């Protein structure tokens, strides 16, 4: 079953977060992920507002989780830590 990787982000250091973004995209693609929303227009209806919202579709929850724990993504993530406040979750789709 496909899965969505959903991130809600407030960037606090643009330069460091840019390094994360440069490395994260290829790591996500390597694990079968494809971006379907990336920082576009949004409407916050409930919860904490995070101005950057990203959704990637993966072949499965397992593929998305494997990506997260991969050395490539963890290297990318090292640039996001301290450069952003984020929430990230993986949810299985119904299709």
From TrEMBL:
Residues 2-93 form the DUF1330 domain. InterPro entries: Dimeric_a/b-barrel, DUF1330. This is Uncharacterized conserved protein, DUF1330 family. It comes from Roseovarius pacificus.
């Amino acid at each position: 079953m496909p899965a969505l990787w959903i991130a809600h982000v407030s960037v606090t250091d643009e330069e460091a977060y840019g390094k994360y973004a440069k490395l994260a995209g290829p790591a996500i693609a390597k694990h079968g992920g494809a971006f379907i929303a990336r920082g576009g227009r949004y409407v916050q209806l409930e919860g904490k507002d995070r101005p950057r919202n990203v959704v990637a579709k993966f072949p499965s929850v397992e593929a998305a989780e494997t990506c997260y724990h991969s050395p490539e993504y963890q290297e990318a993530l090292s640039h996001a830590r301290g450069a952003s406040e984020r929430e990230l979750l993986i949810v299985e789709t119904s299709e």
